[in-house]
Each structure stands twice: as structure tokens, then as C-alpha cells.
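so my prof wants the structure for this chain in the C-alpha cells format not the other one, which i didnt know existed until like an hour ago. anyway here's the sequence
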Amino acid sequence: MASFWGGIFGALRNRIPLIEAAGGLVYGVGLWLIGDELMMPVLKLSPPSTEFPWQNHARAAANHVTYGATLEATHNLLRNQWQQKLSSQS
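here's what i got, hopefully its the right format
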């Protein structure tokens, strides 16, 4: 699933200014809120969010923020390498 959502990030990053400006952090928080907190319980893939202690929610949020920041860093690294390759061919 992480690869799928990483691809979605790549597709949306330059189209939605808030995602680009926040360095992937908004994207990570969005995945946490929509995925973990809302959709998992709705789809009955996990118990309701209220059945978990706040520490579980905080850890999951931190993990998703880290995921978003990692997506941004990877995107920037690959973009820079691609631009260098293109400029060296000119």
C-alpha cells in the first residue's frame, strides 16, 4: 500500500500547492486521518478509533508524518538527479 500512496503523492505534489509547501507533512497527516482514523473502522478492518488509547493514535500520526516527509525527500532527490542527468545531456 505504501508504494501506491507514494505514487499518488507524486501525482498530486505539483498539482496541490499545500502538499508541496508543507513538504509532504500535510499528505502524511491526511493519510492518517482519512485512512487510520476514518476508513479502517468504517470498513471494519479495525475496531473503532475510540477503543485505542491516545498513545496509539499519536504513534500512528507520527509514523504518517514521517512517511510524508520521506516521500518529499525522495521526490526531491529523484527530481534533482533527473534534472542533473538532463542538463548533462544538453
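also thought this was worth mentioning. Residues 49 and 55 are 12 Å apart (CA to CA).
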